[in-house]
Amino acid sequence: MPRPPHARDKVLAAYVGLLVEGERGATMDAVAARAGVSKGGLLYHFPSKDALAEAVLELFAQVSGDDLVAMRSAPEGAAKHFVRTSWQVDHELDPIYRAALRLAQAGHAGALAAIDDLHQQWLAAIEAEVGDPGVARTIMLIGDGLYHQTSMPGTWSHDTFAAALPDLLAQVDRLCGR
Questions:
Q1: 76-100: buried (b, 16+ CB within 10 Å) or exposed (e) per residue?
Q2: For the chain, which residues make up each domain, given as ranges?
Q3: How would you classify residue 153: left for phi > 0, otherwise alpha for psi between -120 and 50, otherwise beta?
């Protein structure tokens, strides 16, 4: 039988969930309520919203680092891996990425730097494979467009892109001269 999550993990997951829904609603009281802990229990693990934000960014660094390792070692190559995974909003990285993005949108300098760094590393991995900065940026934009479309409400984009993914990956191959 798996152990129940520790209070710290529950609090951090609650904060991530609230950030994804909207940064303004991610108050300390809301975090404690969603995590099912007392305010004192919350403050024991995270004495401030800044401490919560830093924990999100630590988790973001860990999960995005794992994603970069997978991207760089993907048998299909970094470019196709990036496009293939860009529309998967059920991936472990997605809610943490969106939480970091919300923090960045709210002016958190560390979150903005972390998002920028991840995007630069994604681009560098693609460029290292394809050898052309313009092609690498185009592939990034394909992936970003997929992510944007599949994060929209409804099922149209998910169903459409699931069927179109092989064609998009073939386009990536053409862009890369394969």
A1: ebbbbbbbbbbbebeeebbbbbbbb
A2: 1-47, 54-175
A3: beta
Cβ-based neighbour number of residue 16 at 10 Å: 23
Specify the fold of 1-47: Arc Repressor Mutant, subunit A (1.10.10)
Q: Which helix (DSSP H) or strand (DSSP E) does residue 108 occupy? A: none
- Measure Cα distances from 43 to 9, 17, 37, 52 in Å: 13, 18, 10, 10
Q: How far apart are CA 101 and CA 110, in angstroms?
A: 11
Query: Cβ–Cβ contacts within 10 Å for residue 73, how many?
Result: 9
Taking only the tens place, the pLDDT of each residue in 50-83 is 999 999 999 999 999 999 999 999 999 999 999 9
Measured distance CA(23)–CA(99) in Å, rounded: 8
Scanning the structure block, which residue is given the tokens 């305010």? 39
Is residue 113 within 8 A of residue 60, CB to CB? The reply is no
H helix runs in the chain, sequence order: 7-21, 28-35, 39-45, 49-72, 78-86, 93-105, 109-130, 133-150, 156-175
What does the radius of gyration of the chain's CA atoms come to, in whole angstroms?
Answer: 18
Task: Give the pTM.
Answer: 0.87
